[in-house]
């Protein structure tokens, strides 16, 4: 062929009859497909057609499951075919396991006749996949599933005593009591049902002294697990007799929980649109809750009837009490002590809210603390001067100064006859004084207040002390700072050393904003800035 010439394409001959018939036989045609559909009788196939369609659907579902499955579930190591001897050994092993499971199930609490009707897939999750013995072990019965779980458990822990039928029957009465508690928690008015019972905190009232080094403490489910706070928890308080806990914060809601350590259901709530709460306390009679925020009024909530009373103003004393955000109820339940401005502390009647008396000290009041007798109250200023005010005499009966006297933030009384007085400061230092046997360090003159020498100086924290509280029996001093995460320490009294084993680096405290002990010191609750109320049980008291 000459250079530059174009090659003509070869002509394709037309198909003859034999080629057309062969093409139809191999590839089919539209006419044959339509005629085949007309001649097809679906009823003639019967159940076989249904089975084929179900198989197609099943295969389609398996394809979808394979798409969603992880890569590790799609492959396995082929260890070779099993010989006849291996299969016989496996059959004998399975038969022996079945006989053992049948013998073990007799007289045990876990025996259930419905287990044989169940089929458990061992490939449904990674956790269950660990129970497989071979790669082909995909489905097992419910009884075999429970047996494998027991075997796996008993490799680590001994068989518990409650699994026997005798123990199960002996605990039937306890189960009925728990069912009653659950019914009460799920009722329309769980608080009313709880107040009618004699339910209280579990305590053995141990007379033994608390060891000074290690603390036997166990974490429970969060006290506000059923309904967490939407803001930082500002205050926590336990009911004086029933297992109830009160929490409040800037989300304008008072929440009350039935603290059982297991589910801690919500007993009741109160939302007040106008008041972000700073302080909330149970009255000693257990029937009322007093709550207030940075406002000129205070709320009294009757938890039995649900009624709310509002104390709006103190006539003639509005200039000294611009806010009722910080107050303390007297242990006798008769008085409300309010921290005012310009060194004033005002006393109100807890029954009708009437102004009773006022105390004036020099400086700015940092905190107040009632004595257990309800007849005196200690007032500490930011400069460290402590005044003990007599309620009956309406005057200051004693006055002394804290050593250091710089940036005082809080005060707490504890121990028998209020023996110990703890004072926290902005530097994180807590001074503890022995009120029954004080040591005078410096006294300028007979007319001026002396400076006491502290019995102990606690320096475990380095930021501002915001929470300070003694346990009801006076053997533990809890101190916390909201300025730093996990800044909480429990101090043993009277050795005044921090417990070594708690809290640890993994304790989920957060920024602690509130601390509360139950009346018998059985539980400790800490509120944090994230709105969680962490709950712990002190086994020494339980």
Give your account of this protein's structure.
The protein has 542 residues and is of the alpha+beta class. The protein has nine helices and 32 strands. The strands form nine sheets. A four-stranded antiparallel β-sheet has the order 3-32-31-30, with no helix packed on it. β13 (335-339) and β14 form a beta hairpin. The N and C termini lie far apart (110 Å). Mean pLDDT is 81; it is low at 44-54, 56-60, 66-106 and 180-188.
Blueprint of the fold:
Elements: H1 17-27, H2 30-39, H3 47-68, H4 84-105, E1 119-121, H5 126-129, E2 139-141, H6 142-154, H7 165-170, H8 172-186, H9 190-196, E3 217-220, E4 233-238, E5 244-249, E6 253-258, E7 266-271, E8 277-282, E9 288-293, E10 298-302, E11 308-311, E12 327-329, E13 335-339, E14 344-349, E15 355-360, E16 365-370, E17 376-381, E18 385-390, E19 395-401, E20 408-414, E21 420-425, E22 430-434, E23 439-442, E24 451-453, E25 456-458, E26 467-470, E27 476-480, E28 488-492, E29 497-498, E30 512-517, E31 523-528, E32 533-538
Antiparallel strand pairs: 1-2, 3-32, 4-5, 5-6, 6-7, 8-9, 9-10, 10-11, 12-13, 13-14, 14-15, 16-17, 17-18, 18-19, 20-21, 21-22, 22-25, 23-24, 26-27, 27-28, 28-29, 30-31, 31-32
